[in-house]
Design goal:
Layout lengths: L1 E5 L11 E12 L6 E11 L8 E7 L21 H9 L3 E5 L15 H18 L3 E10 L1 H12 L8 E8 L6 H9 L4 H17 L11 H5 L1 H5 L6 H10 L10 H12 L12 E6 L7 H13 L4 E6 L12 H11 L11
Parallel strand pairs: 4-5, 4-6, 6-7, 7-8, 8-9
Antiparallel strand pairs: 1-2, 2-3, 3-5
Helix pairs in contact: 2-3, 4-9, 5-8
């Protein structure tokens, strides 16, 4: 465990509502082989006096920022677009900690979209926050968008075991990546959206960390095979270039080389499908009905499966909204405030 105080001016968006900022390096566990890992992140303490029992903790799972080590959000003044969310949680009286995830900001590859690794990183970030900020309670909530939505959903499922000693009261997953098997169908059918075309190279490179036998040539051809490096760099650096390349790439550039190659990819994706087990705490799940990356029917299916497991879910569909941070009005913080206060959670799952 290492900590480094950071001048609040480094993160200008949060300096008005934060009392202090600290960069952290903490221990976690690989979801691939169970080995110990070192993960970086950043935490913020709100202004004011901690309530009786200590500040609750919000652990943030950030969305996709790239696969290179230098893409760690904690290294950027704007926190790779997460500063506004962090400022909101600070305003509502949370100590906020955001993991960079394994391989972002620390040596070694980033196992992009490995839910167990992400879950461990999110949970251990809470432990790190408690070690750095003694005036915290054991109560925590999780919030994440896209990749982060997957991370905190998986953390909710892992919390009863891996998160023992902490008290998770709820997670908020926005546009979560819960099941990528339909991507394979779209690759075979030639129906990938432009946004999904941008995603595919990153997903494949992330899978290679866990499955070195994955041959990119089985899934990417032509201009896409020649342009992989443009898709794994940090968000913002090559974003416009990625869109241009993906827009011009024909469907044949994503066609699996054989039915067997397609089946292998489905099997790899299948190991990461959420839900995998009942959740430990209530969930809010939000998604846009115009999401071009994680299609709304994919999320609706995941919610239905989780409901069938007995999970308590408050599902919100945002009309006309796409992928990423959604405008849910006051619903998000009304919901999380209720979980911390211990009020009964809303449940949109059908009666058993």
């Amino acid at each position: 465990m290492a900590e480094e105080p950071i001048p609040l001016a480094t993160y200008s968006v949060v300096q008005q509502v934060a009392d202090r900022a600290v960069k952290i390096r903490y221990g976690s566990t690989s979801g691939i082989d169970g080995s110990p890992t070192t993960v970086s992140g950043v935490l913020f303490v709100p202004k004011g006096t901690a309530p009786q029992g200590g500040w609750p903790i919000a652990s943030i799972g950030h969305p996709t920022v790239g696969l290179d080590s230098e893409c760690a959000p904690s290294s950027y003044p704007g926190l790779m677009g997460n500063a506004g969310t962090i400022a909101q949680f600070l305003t509502f009286g949370y100590v906020v900690v955001m993991t960079d995830y394994q391989g972002l900001g620390t040596p070694g590859p980033h196992p992009y979209l490995d839910p167990t690794t992400e879950a461990n990183d999110v949970i251990d970030a809470v432990r790190a926050a408690r070690a750095v900020v003694p005036e915290t309670s054991d109560t925590w909530v999780g919030y994440g968008v896209s990749q982060g939505g997957q991370a905190v959903w998986a953390a909710n499922e892992e919390a009863a075991e891996y998160g023992r000693g902490l008290r998770l009261v709820g997670t908020m997953s926005i546009a979560p990546a819960t099941d990528l098997r339909p991507l394979v169908d779209a690759m075979q059918a030639g129906t990938l959206t432009v946004e999904q075309k941008v995603l595919v190279p990153m997903v494949l490179k992330g899978l290679q960390v866990r499955h070195p036998e994955l041959d990119l040539d089985d899934y990417l051809h032509g201009v896409m095979a020649r342009s992989v490096d443009a898709f794994i760099g940090c968000e913002g650096e090559n974003s416009s270039q990625r869109g241009i390349i993906a827009q011009g790439a024909p469907a044949s550039d994503f066609m699996p080389s054989s039915p067997q190659a397609a089946d292998r990819l489905r099997q790899w994706f299948g190991a990461d499908v959420l839900p995998r087990r009942p959740a430990s705490a209530p969930m809010l799940v939000g998604y846009g009905d115009a999401d071009p990356i994680v299609l709304p029917q994919w999320t609706a299916t995941a919610v239905a499966r989780a409901c069938a497991l007995g999970d308590v879910i408050d599902a919100h569909v945002a009309p006309g909204q796409g992928h990423g941070t959604l405008d849910l009005g006051s619903a998000l913080f009304d919901w999380v405030s209720g979980r911390v206060a211990g009020t009964p959670p809303p449940n949109t799952c059908p009666p058993a």
